[in-house]
Design goal:
InterPro entries: Phage_holin_3_6. By secondary structure, the chain is an all-alpha fold. It contains three helices and no strands. The longest helix is centred in the middle third of the chain and has 73 residues. The radius of gyration is 34 Å and the shape is elongated.
Length: 135
């Protein structure tokens, strides 16, 4: 191992080499961190996809449950008032439930703002600060 006196030309050259290595290492570290972040995002997306599939299957099973319970209600009510009237009663009940859900959903949808107002406001503040940072 050779010793180099500080301030000599060899020292300055090795300092440049060290800076070059440092820059290369930093660049490699950033690339590796980005690759790790991409892998983590992919892994989480796969988990979310599986969870979404399970929720969709649960929704379908719930739908079938409601349909079959509706048929059971129709046949149970048919013992009292006849099959046609029982089917009509259950259909009207489902129609009322659907109309109530529709009107409630429509009212909530009208209150949705398509513009992210808080973000727009903070962006305006950032632009103003960038124009006049001393204020």
């Amino acid at each position: 191992m050779s010793t180099v006196e500080p301030g000599t030309p060899e020292d300055r050259a090795s300092l440049g080499d060290l800076l070059g290595e440092l820059t290369g290492d930093l660049s490699r570290l950033v690339r590796q961190e980005l690759e790790l972040a991409k892998a983590e995002v992919r892994e989480e997306a796969v988990k979310a996809g599986k969870a979404g599939g399970m929720l969709a299957a649960a929704g379908y099973a719930g739908h079938l449950t409601v349909v079959l319970l509706s048929f059971a209600a129709v046949f149970g009510l048919a013992e009292l008032i006849g099959l046609g009237w029982a089917a009509l009663v259950i259909a009207v009940l489902w129609g009322i439930a659907g109309a109530a859900l529709y009107s409630s959903g429509r009212a909530k949808l009208k209150r949705v703002s398509p513009k992210p107002e808080r973000t727009v406001e903070t962006l305006k503040e950032d632009v103003e600060w960038a124009r006049h940072p001393t204020k």
